[in-house]
Amino acid sequence: MGEALRRPTSIDVSNPRLYQDDTWRPLFAQLRRDDPVHYCEASAYGPYWSVTRYDDIFAVELDHQNYSSASELGGIQVTDQPKGQERPSFIRMDPPGHTAQRRTVAPIVAPSNLANFDALIRKRTSAVLDALPRNETFDWAERVSVDLTNMMLATLFDFPPEDRAKLTWWSDVAIANVESPDAVVRSEAERTAELVKMGEYFRKLWDARADAPPTFDLISMLAHSDATRNLEPREFIGTIGLLIVGGNDTTRNSMSAGLMALYENPEQFELVRARPELIPNLVSETIRYHTPVLHMRRTARNDVELAGRRIKKGDKVVMWYISGNRDEDKIERADEFIIDRAKPRQHLAFGAGVHRCVGDRLAEQQLRILWEEVLARDLRFELMGPPQRLYSNFIRGIRSLPARIVN
What we know:
The chain is an alpha+beta fold. Helices cover 46% and strands 10% of the residues. It is built from 16 helices and 12 strands. Helix 9 (188-210) packs across helix 10 (218-224) and helix 12 (249-264) crosses helix 16 (360-376). Keywords: Heme, Iron, Metal-binding, Monooxygenase, Oxidoreductase.
C-alpha cells in the first residue's frame, strides 16, 4: 500500500500541449515530490522514464557510459528519429567521436574570441532597438529576438547576410512537431525535403571554403578539420542543423522570455534599473526560469539503477530540464523570478558534462548586451497580449510576443 501511495499513476509529461498552454508546473511538482524517476508506460512516443530532480538529471548527464546520446539508439529527444532518416551529429554521439567533432567548432565561441564579437553585437542591438516603433504595438519576438539571433548566426557561418532569414526557417523546420496544426512542415518527408535543400545550400559554401585557405568561421572550420571534412550526407545535414538550432533557439527564446519575466515581475525590472551590475544575474535567471530546451533524452546502454528505480538496457531516459530548474530542494524559491540570487548560474538549461551547450557564453553575451542597451535607453514596455507559444515538448519556444514601448 505504501508503495502504491508513494508513486503516482503513469504521468505523461511528453504531451506538447502542456508547454504550448503553459500548464506543466503541477505535474512536474507532483513527480519531484512523489516519484522523481517516473516510468510512463504509454505515450505518443512510447514508454519512457522521466528524470525530474536536479541532482538525478546531473547524474545522468555525467554518466555517458550508462546513458547514451547515440543517434543509432534513438538520439536526444523523447521522439525517436525516423528509421532510415536519422541525422547524426556530435550532439547525438558519445565520446570519443563526439569529442573530436565538438572540438572542431569550439574555438569560435571560446572566451578569447567572444571579446571580438562584443562591439558588433552591441552595434546591431542598438540599431534594432532604435528602429522599434514608439507607442505602437510590434512583435518583440520577430523584431528583436529573431532578428538579432539570425544576424549572429550569419556571422558565425560567414553566411550571405541577404539570405539570413533562411537560417531561422531551417531552425524552425528542424525542431517542428509535425503534428501541430500550424507546423511549418507537416510530415517527416516534408521536413527531410526542406533540410536537404539546406544541405545543398551549405554544400556550395562548404566546397568553396574547402578549396580556399582556412578562415575563422564555422563552415571553414568544419571543412578543414580531419574530424568533419568527410561527413556523409545525413551527418552533414545533422551537423549543420545542430549548429543552426543550437545558435538560434536558446538565445532567441530567452530574449523574449526575459521581457515577459521582467514585465510580470516589475519589481525585478526596477531592481536591475537601479543596479545594472545585476544584468549578468538577470541573464542567468532568465535562462533558468524559462529553460528554452525542455528536455534531453538518453538511452540506457546497460541495466542501471537511478534513485532507487531499475532502468533496463534500451529504455528511454528523459531528463526534464524544465523540472530540474524548478527543484526547490536545490534552488530556493525556484518558482520565482529573482535576479539577485546568490548562485544565479546554478541551473541545468545548458545541460552538463560533455554535452554542455558549446555556445553558452555567446548566448549569455548576446542577452547581456541586449539588456545593457535597453537600460541605457531607459526603455519601458507594455505587453499587449499573451505570447504565442510553440507546440513542442523539446523547445520552449515563443513564436510571437506583442509589445509596446511606452516612453
